Every structure is written in C-alpha cells, then in structure tokens.
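Quick log. Single chain, no ligands specified.
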Amino acid sequence: MKQSGGRTRRGWKKRGRFYVVTLGCPKNQVDSEGLSAQLVRYGYRPVARPKEADFIIVNTCGFLETARQEAIDTLRTLAARRRAGQHVIAAGCLAQLWGAQLAHVVPGLDGIIGTRSWADIPQVLAQLATRRETPVVHVPEVGHTLPDADVLRLDGQQPRASAYLKIAEGCSAGCAFCLIPTIKGPARSRPRAAILREAQMLVEQGVRELILIAQDTTAYGHDLGEREGLATLIEDILRVAPELRWLRLMYAYPGRVSERLIEVMATHPQVCHYLDLPVQHGHPATLRRMRRPHDVTGLIRWIERLRQAMPDIALRTSLIVGYPGETEEEFQALLDFMQTVRFDRVGIFPYSREPGTPAYALPGQLPEEVKRARYERAMQLQQSISWERNQAQVGRQLEVLVEGANDGISVARSYRDAPEVDGFVLVQGEHPVNSWLSVRIIAATPYDLIAVSETSERGSAMCARSAAG
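-> predicted structure:
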C-alpha cells in the first residue's frame, strides 16, 4: 500500500473498518480526507455505511451554536444506535473546543480527538479496540505547530476533477465574533514543499481544479516572514502542476490582496477570475466593533482595482446583520454598500452570539426578530443584484466542469462558481461527469445559469444542414 513520499507499508493486518462523518466547512473535508488516508495506510478499511463500521468518526464543527448542536445531535444519534463492538469518536473543532467535557454532553462517547491530534488517530483506534470504561481523549492545547497533514488524501478513493488544498491552519485576525483562534490557534502556514508535493500528487491523480483554502489564504507566509507568500505559492503550484486547469482562491482578507497577487491572478490563465472576500459589514463603526478593517472607502477603491485588472472577475463575500449595537443607520449603510459594490455572490448571516468571544459581552445585543428582519431585507436586495449580475452572463461562452447529470440536464460549474457555496450552470443534455464543456449561456436565474453545449449546437446545425441537403 503506497504512502506519501513513495514508501510502502506491507504486512499490516486489517485492523478494522471505519466510517467518517464530516460536518462543517471545506477545511474539515480536507482534514477528513487526510485522516481517512492515514487510517488506510495503517491497515484500517473504509466502508460506505456507518452500520458496517467498527469505528465511526465524526469530524465536528464548533464555530457557531447551530453547528455545535448539529454535531451533538449527530453524535448522540450514532451513540444511541451503535451495535455491540462499535465505537463512536468525536473529532475536530468541537472536540478541540470542549475536550473531555464533550463526554458529559454525549453519554457513551468512546473517543475524543482534537484538531491538533490528527496524527494520533491510529493510536486512538488501537486503544479503543480493547474494552474501555472511559473515553480515550487526545486533545492537547492549541499550539503553534501544525499537525502532520502531509498525506496522500486520495489514497483508496476514485479520482475526481476538483479538490480543496489547505495551505494554512489557524487565524491571527482576532475578529470579535469568531471562535476560530480559540479552537485552532494563530495562523500557521504549511511548509511550501508539503503543499507543492500534495498539489502535484492530486493533479497526477486526475484533479484539474485546486481550491486553495485557509482561514485567511492571503496571510499565507506572513508567519514565515514572506510578504508575497500567496502570490509566489500560486506560481510555484502552476510550475509543478502544469496540467492544472483551474486554481481558485477562497477566504481572502480585506486589504491583504496585494498588487503582486492581482497581477498573478490576471496574467495566469489557470487562476480563476474569482475571489471570496469576507468583508462582514459596510459601516465603519460596525466593523470597528467587529475588530475588522474599517476603511470602507478604501475597500471600494480596492474592489474597483480588482475589476480593472480582471473585468470578468466574480466576487463573493460574507456579511453579518444584527451585530451588537447595529443601528438602523448602520444597517442602511450596509445595504448601500451592497448596492455600490454589487457582489456576484453574498452569504448573509444573522449574528450568532458565541460564548468565549469578545462580541458576546458587547452592549446592544439585538432581538432575534430584528436580526431576522434585517436578514430578509438584505437577502431580498442581494437576490435582485445576483439576478442582474447573472443576466449579464447571457450570451457569453464559458468553460464548465460537469458534476452530475439526470433527466436530460447536466449540472456544471464555471470559473464563477465555487463548489458547495455558489450556483450552477445547468446545461441541456446529459454529459459525462468530470468532463469539460464549452457552453453558451442562454438564460439566467438569481442563482443559476442556463446553457447549451457548443458541441451539441454544432451537431444540431450539421444535422439540420444534412437534412436540408
């Protein structure tokens, strides 16, 4: 069985079957894939259904109360339904946040492993193979080192066209509403050599879209003393993986997209003209209370610079409504900001009051009904903007990646669409999954585009000419 680095491990006895449940964001998906590949190398076998597993591992999210409750409900359900000899393990962010206390919330939990202990997962499962009365807990304090994540993530899986590539862990931004620094510690960049090795391996296995992710991708290299770490990393990835078709950037921090990075994005055709830029609000006073960059005028100028360099760029952002102390004037400024910038995609979230964050103690906490009403107003505005931005795509020719097909329709994505968070391009006709098509956009909705394949159009035209002849 092949390992990263080309080594082989032979003679391992099959140690048991495992199933991983992934909750939360794409960064968790990357961790789950790495964890799974590590277990495979140690002789454990993945299975397709939880009931077939000896070990059920739930990679949890702890960012918001709703995510924590989803994790708790999932763990309780699995623990209640487990058969004799089956073990349920809580892993990831909630496990890191609550540690051994999670066993009191979920009775019968067998193991708890935090985000800094991924390399310990084989040891945890080995300990659980012997009967134990108390949970196995591996939750060290959040430190300044990265876990051992340099693994061949597609080991034992079918090749796919798109994959996330995590370039850093943790966050040093210190936003007042966010638990990530508490859970994952300060920003720590992965070694460049490890990232390039993983990118090369993924592309060699058939991946044609790499999506760079971190809590803040634009902070890559800052902890290592690199001023243009992300820009040079992109160039290095394109050098070692020339077969790569798309490279997409997520989670850029306002003010950290340098002129050099803009130049790299604009001049390398493999880099998608797409940027996810979570700005969170549009009023300076609200942003100050959030401990976020608050030069809104400068931000608007910077977005104009992006559009000058890449007129076809698709911009996505995240916004919080109902933040403590948000007045009607501040909320109206947010709506005005949305009107001015006209983002292609926006994720809007009512503020969630999270214990352990500075914002939890802020005065001016707003009633839920106010937050919900402002959410509805902002969503209604963005729907009209998104529809207008999508309408502007009608008549364009785009390259798309097919992700599914059924009932005469193929579901695809263009460079404008990140997986899981954005819309789709719905193409007439059923085309092979993971294939690339050149399409023409013929219609638009607020969220999706409707297209026809240029190949199909040419075929229809040839048939028509043949019939006419």
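Residues 1-13, 144-152, 459-469 have pLDDT under 50 and may be disordered.
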